């Protein structure tokens, strides 16, 4: 039998604190990892782990980064994670050995509420006064020793963004971990909340009742008992698990307190704030707080109900303009490189199927997508500026009224906005939304927001079919079209949310509270990291899924072959050369070449697939050639562009140098009807289809995980695909009636 060695368990340190206090920044500084940070509350929504080697003993410990929380009474999914981890209620994991409380020093008084709750429930704790730079700037003179004495734990100042204070923090962590639990808090009595006798009594009654739920952390029961008293909406997971019995006990306690005229709903908050005030006045005695006025002054305009919205709209329009015009130069450079590489392959590879696969399949399919990297990077550059400057939270505040009118809250805005990058983090971000139905409605409309994978399809169609006109003399029609697509996706999302809230997901609204962080100059490191990460995701998709499917697509487009077709066209060539001469002959021959390629694609596997779905997509203005791309795009949206590139290459007889894709699309003629495959109207219809269709497997997987089942993801596919079809139908048929082509 194998001798089972007991695995040595690493000690665990959990980082907790209010949202946006810099937990992830410090986590990254301690572990050398690079998890996402940004200047708005609610960035981290799940538990993340990393490893830290202690400075003296070199012992390795696990560091856990957690979502932010305002209180240990959880109100949303992300706060619940904090509750469960800190109180040691996650199955199989005891509570952390040490809790590092990250406090925003520039906002000390408010942060101490949660900090106090955590200190009471943990055996070993350290308080980090992060944002020390801001505190100094605001003129706060915090007496660290006083604070440390009052709470009975070490207090360390830090400037997370600049890795300031990290060595000191590591030393403090090592020291705390080496102490016996009983000695870790110098004088635990100091931090005990003074409460009226009656309340203490009642707290004890509940504590005894729930104690068995906290086998790992008996410390935690007392604080939890107090919080249960004030938990008006019965949100604590304990109510779910212990059911009616616990509820009855708590209700009885509340009655008893009412009897002695104690307001049970605010008893903890009142006493805690009073307690904090006493400590605060002692630790920050003479400071004359110079509030940073700049943030307020900027906010007078940026959060103004009218001017704020105007500014928001203008800025968005400018961003799309920039994506279009600035990204052009690097895109042309990449395009030239790819052409050069194709030519090089053309020279070194012998003629034949392998050459065709390399050039017409892989280079065309993957290269066709890689060209769009600069646009993706520009989009993420602006998103990073948005997130790190503090504007994100303002935009949420600004649009709260609009969100509210469709039955969502301002909290849903951040998930929706993140989804312009990608729906997956957008869906994760809905964990901060408190109300269950509210959250579900948000999840359902998140994939309608136009994610970055749709961008290549839009910009290709726009480049080919939208004329380069100017609007109002400054805005380019191409940029405006792109902007309109994004506006359309938002409007559709809001309408869909409104419908869901009126029908399947009815519920009252919860109030919207979102802390506005101070404005900050975005850190170039954060911005570059985000862009770099996205570039990696984008390129690795191109190198894996797009690569593989380009090969498959090339195969489907090139096979099966029919010798009879070849013979037919060969005899047409012979006939032509007997009757025609010079230019006329050359013209005729190239026409026959094109016809032959078209026919070969038509009878290929891909052609068969395209033709079999043609009846469904014909009313939208799409021929079977587009149908091939549509089918491929359900695997990955970008494959639409790859398919077009491969089709264009395979169709092009010259092998190596193909026409520019844009030009090829403009000229492509359907061999079934002899008409152009793409017209401006078809292009718009196609973009609208892409806007609404649910073509992302990762999105469905994450929705399944977050909603615990297949019901909602299936519903999502159904409603989005229907919506896409109907919208394209209206665009195309309506456009035709109006006389467009
Ligand atoms: N000025 C200043 N900014 C900081 C400091 N530490 C972090 N920041 C910035 O504060 C913002 C929030 O940092 P995060 O690390 O994302 O905060 P968090 O606590 O993990 O936030 P959530 O995950 O949303 O709860 C980011 O913009 C950081 O760059 C600091 O010491 N000084
Ligand atoms: Mg975080």
From TrEMBL:
Keywords: Cell membrane, GTP-binding, Ion transport, Iron, Iron transport, Magnesium, Membrane, Metal-binding, Nucleotide-binding, Transmembrane, Transmembrane helix, Transport. InterPro entries: Fe2_transport_prot-B, Fe2_transport_prot_B_C, FeoB_GTPase, G_FEOB_dom, Gate_dom, GTP-bd, P-loop_NTPase. It is a multi-pass membrane protein. One of its GO terms (molecular function) is GTP binding. Pfam families: FeoB_C, FeoB_N, Gate. PROSITE patterns: G_FEOB. Residues 10-179 form the FeoB-type G domain. This is Ferrous iron transport protein B.
């Amino acid at each position: 039998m194998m001798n089972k060695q007991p695995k040595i368990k690493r000690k665990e340190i959990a980082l907790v604190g209010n949202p946006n206090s810099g937990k992830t920044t410090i986590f990254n500084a301690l572990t050398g990892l690079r998890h996402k940070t940004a200047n708005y509350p609610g960035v981290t929504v799940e538990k993340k782990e990393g490893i830290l080697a202690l400075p003296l003993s070199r012992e390795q410990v696990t560091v856990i980064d957690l979502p932010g929380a305002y209180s240990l009474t959880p109100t949303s999914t992300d706060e619940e994670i904090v509750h469960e981890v800190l109180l040691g209620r996650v199955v199989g994991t005891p509570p952390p050995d040490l809790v590092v409380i990250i406090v925003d020093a520039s906002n000390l008084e408010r942060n101490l509420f949660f900090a106090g709750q955590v200190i009471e429930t943990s055996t070993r704790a350290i308080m980090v006064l992060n944002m020390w730079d801001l505190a100094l700037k605001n003129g706060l003179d915090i007496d660290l020793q006083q604070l440390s004495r009052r709470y009975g734990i070490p207090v360390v100042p830090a400037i997370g963004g600049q890795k300031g204070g990290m060595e000191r923090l590591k030393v403090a962590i090592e020291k705390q971990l080496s102490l016996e639990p009983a000695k870790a808090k110098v004088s635990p009595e100091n931090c005990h909340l003074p409460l009226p006798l009656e309340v203490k009594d009642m707290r004890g009654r509940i504590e005894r009742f729930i104690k068995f739920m906290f086998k790992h952390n008996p410390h935690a029961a007392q604080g939890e008992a107090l919080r249960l008293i004030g938990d008006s909406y019965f949100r604590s997971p304990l109510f779910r698990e212990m059911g009616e019995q616990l509820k009855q006990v708590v209700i009885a306690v509340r009655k008893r307190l009412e009897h002695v005229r104690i307001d049970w709903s605010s008893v903890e908050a009142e006493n805690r704030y009073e307690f904090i005030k006493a400590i605060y006045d002692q630790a920050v005695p003479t400071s004359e707080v110079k509030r940073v006025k700049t943030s307020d002054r900027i906010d007078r305009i940026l959060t103004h109900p009218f001017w704020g919205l105007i500014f928001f709209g203008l800025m968005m329009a400018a961003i799309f303009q920039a994506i279009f015009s600035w990204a052009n130069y690097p895109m042309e450079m990449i395009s030239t490189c790819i052409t050069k590489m194709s030519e090089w392959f053309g020279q070194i590879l012998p003629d034949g199927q392998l050459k065709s696969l390399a050039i017409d399949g892989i280079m065309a399919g993957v290269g066709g997508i890689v060209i769009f990297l600069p646009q993706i990077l520009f989009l993420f550059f602006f998103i990073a500026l948005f997130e790190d400057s503090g504007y994100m939270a303002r935009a949420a505040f600004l649009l709260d009224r609009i969100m509210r009118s469709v039955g969502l809250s301002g909290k849903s805005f951040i998930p929706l906005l993140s989804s312009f990058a990608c729906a997956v983090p957008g869906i994760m971000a809905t964990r901060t939304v408190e109300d269950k139905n509210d959250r579900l409605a948000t999840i359902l409309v998140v994939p309608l927001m136009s994610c970055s994978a749709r961008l290549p399809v839009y910009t290709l169609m726009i480049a080919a079919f939208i004329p380069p006109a100017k609007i109002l003399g400054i805005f380019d029609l191409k940029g405006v079209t792109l902007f309109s697509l994004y506006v359309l996706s938002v409007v559709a999302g809001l309408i869909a949310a409104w419908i869901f809230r009126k029908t399947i997901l009815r519920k009252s609204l919860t109030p919207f509270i979102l802390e506005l962080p101070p404005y900050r100059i975005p850190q170039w490191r954060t911005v570059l990291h985000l862009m770099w990460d996205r570039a990696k995701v984008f390129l690795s998709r191109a190198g894996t899924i797009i690569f593989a499917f380009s090969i498959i697509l090339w195969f489907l487009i090139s096979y099966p072959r029919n010798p009879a077709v070849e013979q037919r066209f060969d005899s047409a060539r012979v006939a032509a050369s007997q009757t025609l001469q010079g230019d006329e002959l050359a013209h005729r021959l190239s026409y026959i070449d094109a016809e032959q390629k078209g026919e070969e694609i038509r009878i290929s596997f891909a052609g068969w697939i395209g033709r079999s779905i043609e009846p469904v997509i014909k009313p939208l203005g799409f021929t079977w050639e587009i149908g091939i791309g549509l089918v491929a795009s359900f695997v990955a949206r970008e494959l639409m562009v790859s398919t077009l590139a491969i089709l264009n290459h395979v169709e092009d007889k010259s092998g190596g140098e193909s026409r520019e894709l844009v030009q090829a699309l403009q000229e492509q003629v359907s061999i079934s009807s002899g008409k152009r495959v793409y017209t401006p109207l078809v292009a718009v219809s196609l973009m609208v289809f892409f806007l609404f269709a649910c073509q992302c497997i990762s999105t469905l997987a994450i929705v399944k995980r977050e909603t615990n089942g297949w019901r909602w993801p299936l519903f999502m596919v159904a409603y989005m695909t229907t919506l896409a079809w109907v919208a394209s139908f209206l665009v195309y048929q309506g456009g035709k009636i109006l006389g467009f082509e």
